[in-house]
Amino acid sequence: MLRYLTAGESHGRGLSVIVEGMPAGVPLTAEEINTWLARRQGGYGRGGRMSIERDRVEILAGVRGGYTLGSPVALFIANRDWANWQEIMAPGPEARAERVVTRPRPGHADLAGGLKYHQADLRNILERASARETAARVAAGAVAAALLKELGIELAAHVVRIGPVAVKGAVELSAARQAWGSPVYCADPEASRAMVAVIEEARQKGDTLGGVVEVLAAGVPAGLGSHVHWDRRLDGRLAQALMSIPAIKGVEIGAGFELASIPGILAHDAIAYREGQGFYHPTNRAGGLEGGMTNGEILVLRAAMKPIPTLMQPLPSVDFLTKKPATAAVERSDVCAVPAAAVVAWAAVAWVLAGAVMEKFGGDYLPEIKERMAAYREYLSGI
């Protein structure tokens, strides 16, 4: 079973990740992980924190000579801003009670977390609730993607909407692969330019923007996941992983919400058969998932991100201690983090798919898994 844990605060010493269950023999380097960490930090609309941090991963355990060992993989991403916060965020009693936050920000975890954990200084909540933690998730996702790559499964992610600007029509996998060249990770050059413009407009107004990201996965064989129990349905697991990303408020698979407005004869994908290929669907409104299982088509998943709730023109709030009206606290933030969310969504999908592959095929050594998966693919094409 694949699983991972992360630890660390936004202004703490750094972020730690432990990945368990990765088979031996998977090629993995720090440079490969760093590519995705850099993409998470990029994208037009990011804030001042990204001008401070230069995320680089340190592999502490579980890898030797560029290959996983089968033991837990330990990763660490240092926070460069720790130098400015070490006396405030110190774990010992010497920590200085400065930069205290008592004015909760609407849309953040501040108020709910302060109530749940009995914390008067809401910094004790926002430090962990911060999207800074997603750097650790991206590192874990990059480890999972390294396994998927060896098994012939390829993922791409891109932005399909920022604020009022949206890509027109479906984006093919080949185009989505090139999206990283756009300042907003959008595969459509015209939409990309318009997205940059609306982000700049929001920046000048002191406002923020949300949007929609899409993740595509090709080479996924039919039969990952299961229909037999609610918690084994792969669509549910993928949706949960995407919904767990900070600021994500909606997830759809394939045609998604559009299916609610059209008749069944137009909503479902016909089934066809071709010698040497096996069963397939000429269309893909289901987004590659039926009955909680992959059906062999490209996976298509989208996640909707709300505008960043830290505003330069803060909304009304109430002081946590005095209970008097106040404006919400202002922390350093982004104008738009939708491009970064595309990277985090990529990592989330990679992780869930890698887990589903290991459940289906098992094995402690990469060649074992490759052999089992190749035999299964042969079965699917020859049935």
Question: Can you describe what's shown?
Answer:
Belongs to the chorismate synthase family. Keywords: Amino-acid biosynthesis, Aromatic amino acid biosynthesis, FAD, Flavoprotein, FMN, Lyase, NADP. One of its GO terms (cellular component) is cytosol. NADP(+) binds at residues 40, 46. It catalyses: 5-O-(1-carboxyvinyl)-3-phosphoshikimate = chorismate + phosphate. By secondary structure, the chain is of the alpha+beta class. The chain has a single domain, classed as Chorismate synthase, AroC fold (4-Layer Sandwich), CATH 3.60.150.10. 32% of the residues lie in helices and 20% in strands. It is built from eleven helices and 17 strands. The strands form six sheets. A five-stranded antiparallel β-sheet has the order 8-7-9-15-10. Strands 1-2-6-3 form a four-stranded antiparallel β-sheet, with helices on one face. Strands 4-5 form a two-stranded antiparallel ribbon. A hairpin with a 6-residue loop joins strand 16 and strand 17. The longest helix is centred in the last third of the chain and has 24 residues, at 338-361. It is globular and about 70 Å long.
